[in-house]
């Protein structure tokens, strides 16, 4: 049989499962490139959705260009300049009927390219307009030369822009996708969600939705498609959210099928620790502690997230869980996202547990040489509790009997890191995996928690210890900085302590440290009769600890710091906080920082210094901070203003990168996603698998490889 007939036969039986190499024009080289994008079967191409769209359906006059927008322009080359400032570049000035000039700037170009772009050449170009020093420009626009007086032909449809990889241009990829779409079957064959559920939840045709997003019709508006609210996009977003939900549930089920050591001691250590505390647990702490105790007494691994606003007292709850493990002869690993925070846990745990005869080992990245060898040795031979940073997950760390993993401030770790520590603790002989407790101070809106943490059970410590007074917050322009410094002065003379936080966010640790040093010098000279300390990420752990200790002991009145103090730092006597450039920070970060004060009974204040003029978003954020101390309300607002990637802090790890869904925009779909998900898992497991294979199949195959 000739090869083409073989292909035709395969395609007919199950077009979606057909390898891409069966498509006409897809040879081995192209198939390999597509595989790098995870595109191996025809259905992978159907579900390879555009990232965005380009509007090349009309021309924009150079006079009407606006910075930040993408536009298509037709013009004639007026002048060409080759320069070598820092690196070779080619600047091509074009002009059009509006008599205005636009500069096309290239940093990568070859000789023939620069020779082709001679004055007088007519060009059709498309790119993002930027404001440069001397006017508007486009960097590396796409362009095409127009010969003679050939009129520029504009597109009739919006152009989808797909995620792609090196060596695969948009046109070629779009061409392959078009061939795949020609094989798209009718809904009856395509749909994996049972018809009655589609009807019940108003889900429209999947086939039409796919065709629409790949080939928006002539009447589609860029604006409408960009917001993602078109019914076709919503239909696909629903399915994608459903799939993510199913995959987390499946991951959870896989873990739950494994066995964990039962952590159930006599409760004696617990009694002794509680008796030694200067306070009693709040009702919420008791409840959550009980939920954890019940979970870890089981032989299947606990997967629990404890949410609690800053200062709600999560640490003691974690310590109590650790005691149950220790009583059962198992080790506990506690992992924190920053060294400062890990050190603080170390102090608390040693303070609480050493009197009970429990060994608490320390293992951070900066523990090196002999000390590290010793620590590793202690961990391997069974130190009860091991506290550290990510270093706990590194090669060469092996535990004797890891029964419980506690991850603090989980939003800084991705799902992958979470899993990695779990795997690390898995005992290959016994097949046991540790229980897992995740602590987060970022109150996650319910809808988001349901989706992002569908693999975890959630407990909330929704009550603050008694005697806390809410922090009074005000926003003050940097122009009144001097008044603020005066105010700190007065407070310090009354014996109060203050934090002064410098916030350079996007720059390097070195620049952040410098900014803090400058502020430290400024405050030291303005408040010469007060003692001012400085702490930043570039200091050695010992130095940081010495400064923290001095501040805790009340020897320093003011602590100037970078955002290293953002998470977890606990000095109950500090009652004043100044946050510089507060307009640059997101809500949850502001809330975390503010959470450093208001921990004692003294009334606390927070000053948000800002640099005017304030943009709309910054204004709203500062207003929210003034209005409320409620972490949940702030998180809801944050989700609304910034989107879930930021709220969860996982933008970099990409764990929540969707092709089409957007948790903030599509949160209204989540209740239905849950319902449909539950029915599929219970009654249609095959379909659930099909959805996972469809949306994340390729990625999952890679992850397992
Ligand atoms: P977070 O939840 O932000 O991690 P911590 O565990 O650091 O909070 O607790 C904040 C402070 O409150 C600590 O000083 C801790 O000792 C104290 N604390 C915890 N629980 C209680 C309680 N039930 N009553 C009084 N103080 C408490
Ligand atoms: Mg904490």
UniProtKB/TrEMBL annotation:
Keywords carried by this UniProt record: ATP-binding, DNA damage, DNA recombination, DNA repair, DNA-binding, Helicase, Hydrolase, Isomerase, Nucleotide-binding
Domain of life where this protein originates: Bacteria
An example Gene Ontology molecular-function term: ATP binding
Pfam families attached to this UniProt entry: DEAD, Helicase_C, RecG_dom3_C, RecG_wedge
Top EC class, one word: isomerase
UniProt-listed InterPro entries: ATP-dep_DNA_helicase_RecG, DEAD/DEAH_box_helicase_dom, Helicase_ATP-bd, Helicase_C-like, NA-bd_OB-fold, P-loop_NTPase, RecG/Mfd, RecG_dom3_C
CDD domains per the UniProt record, alphabetical: DEXHc_RecG, RecG_wedge_OBF
EC number(s) given by UniProt: 5.6.2.4
Domain Helicase ATP-binding: 295-461
Reactions that this protein is recorded to catalyse: Couples ATP hydrolysis with the unwinding of duplex DNA by translocating in the 3'-5' direction; ATP + H2O = ADP + phosphate + H(+)
Domain Helicase C-terminal: 494-640
Single biological process term from Gene Ontology: DNA repair
Family named by the database record: Belongs to the helicase family. RecG subfamily.
PANTHER family in alphabetical order: ATP-DEPENDENT DNA HELICASE HOMOLOG RECG, CHLOROPLASTIC
Main function: Plays a critical role in recombination and DNA repair. Helps process Holliday junction intermediates to mature products by catalyzing branch migration. Has replication fork regression activity, unwinds stalled or blocked replication forks to make a HJ that can be resolved. Has a DNA unwinding activity characteristic of a DNA helicase with 3'-5' polarity.
The protein's name: ATP-dependent DNA helicase RecG
Organism: Dyella japonica DSM 16301
